[in-house]
Design goal:
Blueprint (H helix, E strand, L loop, with lengths): L7 H18 L4 H8 L3 H9 L7 H11 L3 H19 L12
Helix pairs in contact: 1-3, 1-5, 2-3, 2-4
Pfam families: HTH_31 (PF13560)
Organism: Streptomyces purpurascens
Protein name: Helix-turn-helix domain-containing protein
């Protein structure tokens, strides 16, 4: 089965997820977090680097649990930038009075 290419929004969301998990991991080693989450260190490395932009839900749930993050908090943080872009695109376009002919 061929997988569809990721959209730019999915790639960006994956990068935000990776950054969030790296920050939450803090000084804990990648190996310790991966083993406690029952995933391979390579999988965690790929998620943190954004190379796996759409990891499986159980994988993220396991990592979040290990790091003491709620899934609601994870989703809120990684989708925040998308909401800002969507909100800005909904704003009306105004033109400067001197540019209106």
């Amino acid at each position: 089965m061929v997988r569809s290419p990721l959209t730019p929004a999915e790639v960006e969301r994956g990068q935000r997820l990776g950054a969030l998990l790296r920050r939450a991991r803090g000084c804990r080693s990648m190996l310790d977090v991966a083993l406690a989450s029952h995933i391979s260190p390579e999988t965690l490395r790929k998620i943190e680097s954004g190379r796996v932009a759409t990891p499986a839900f159980p994988t993220i749930a396991a990592i979040a649990d290990t790091l003491g993050l709620s899934l609601d908090a994870v989703w809120a943080e990684i989708s925040q930038a998308e909401r800002i872009v969507e909100d800005q695109s909904a704003l009306p376009v105004t033109r400067h009075p001197s540019l209106v002919s």
